[in-house]
Amino acid sequence: TTTTSTTTTCVTPAPPVPNIPGIKTMQDLARMEPSKGEDGVSVYSFHEYVNVPSGGFGVITLKKTYKKIFAQDNGTDVGIGMDIIGVTTIDSIDKIVGLKIFLSLDWEDNRLNWPIGSPEPKQEWEFDSKILNYIWKPDPHFDEQNSQQGLRSLGFDTSDERFFVTKASKDSNLKLRFTKKIKVDIICDMHFENFPFDSQKCKFFIKSLKGQKSIRWGVSETNCSGHLVHPDFLISVIPSNETTDLVGGKSVSASGFYLVLQRKPEPYLWLYFVPCFLMILTSWISFAVNFEAVPGRLGLLLTLLLMLINMNNSISESIPKSDGICPLILWVFISIIFIVFALVEYFIILITVKFGSLKSKVAAKKMRKENSKDLQAWASNMDKSSLALFPTAYFVCVLIFVLTLVLKIE
């Protein structure tokens, strides 16, 4: 009896070949000519391989159970990088602050499949951003965002947005990264009680637009490409280590930075504070003018008063509104008061000369001449007293004004 033994070999079928022209295996990928990115990273571009049947991008495939409206079951940590390129607008009237930002978001999605393999360390696989229409992605939104738009090239509808996949090290997970330059405007909570010596702290915090609790925003890596310059403000950036924010008494995930705007007071000093000071000095000249020169003395004080009232109206229309009286309005108001007091002093002299008791008792011509000398002496003493009292009172007010302002700002 002859026994024949047969050996059966089980062969594992090869995985399905992605439907990508020219790329079937990792060996085909190795023959691609990558471009060089930052820090010597090899960038492989798959832009032309995105528009394939839905559910199979070739390099990336999705299961039928994949739902792009939900994040992973255990939630997703989203890293944020913001490089501030420049300031686009600062509107104190509407309380709007705009920045140009290079935004970077990175996250993980373990539900994605990689039929031909995944990126190795020091590699970036770049895809057309249209692929984001098919997979889950974060929904970043700046708190109190007023508007946002992406930057486009001149003459062409071309954006600088990039979507790529990278791997930091051999043992780390794949990171999906999206970058784009944006212009964003936010509504800043500004207060102008100290205008024009005010300082504003604007909050640029990113949150989930839909309020997705599954998103955990990481600490923002905030940088400035250069010195932020604006003609009206000194600007500084304060990075924040906060990853939560209170909304309606509840803590929500958020991350970002603070933009500090310190107003430059010099233009207002030269345009308003110094001219008001000079007008007050000019008003003191009226005390040296003979009280009988009514048109000259009265014309000088009335002209100064009208100029200050016109300046006050102009300032009220041009500066931002505040809950209380700001230092600039207070300074002009103090100046108006001192001009009015100078007019009141001259008014007392004129009333006394015209209706004073000394004049009513004079009957003879000789007595009128003697009385006229008494009136002139009295008016002269009145002006001398005012010339000593008014500057003293004014400089005391200025000193109190400055000390109060310094203490209030500090």
What do you see in this structure?
With 410 residues, the chain is α+β, with helices and mostly antiparallel strands. It contains six helices and 16 strands. Strands 1, 2, 3, 4, 5, 7, 8, 9, 11 and 12 form a ten-stranded mixed β-sheet that branches. Strands 6-10-16-13 form a four-stranded antiparallel β-sheet, with no helix packed on it. α2 (266-283) runs antiparallel to α3 (294-318), α2 (266-283) packs parallel to α4 (327-355) and α4 (327-355) packs antiparallel against α6. Residues 1-21, 49-56 and 357-367 have low confidence and may be disordered.
Determine the number of helices (DSSP H or I, runs of at least 4 residues): 6
Q: Could you list the spans in which at least 5 consecutive residues all have pLDDT below 50?
A: 1-21, 49-56, 357-367
Note the gap between the termini: 109 Å
Major beta sheet, specifics? 10 strands, mixed
> Which outline best applies?
rod-shaped
Category from helices, strands and their pairing: alpha+beta
* pLDDT averaged residue by residue: 83
User: Strand percentage, roughly?
Assistant: 25-35%
Order of helices and strands: HEEEEEEEEEEEEEEEEHHHHH
Helix content: 25-40%
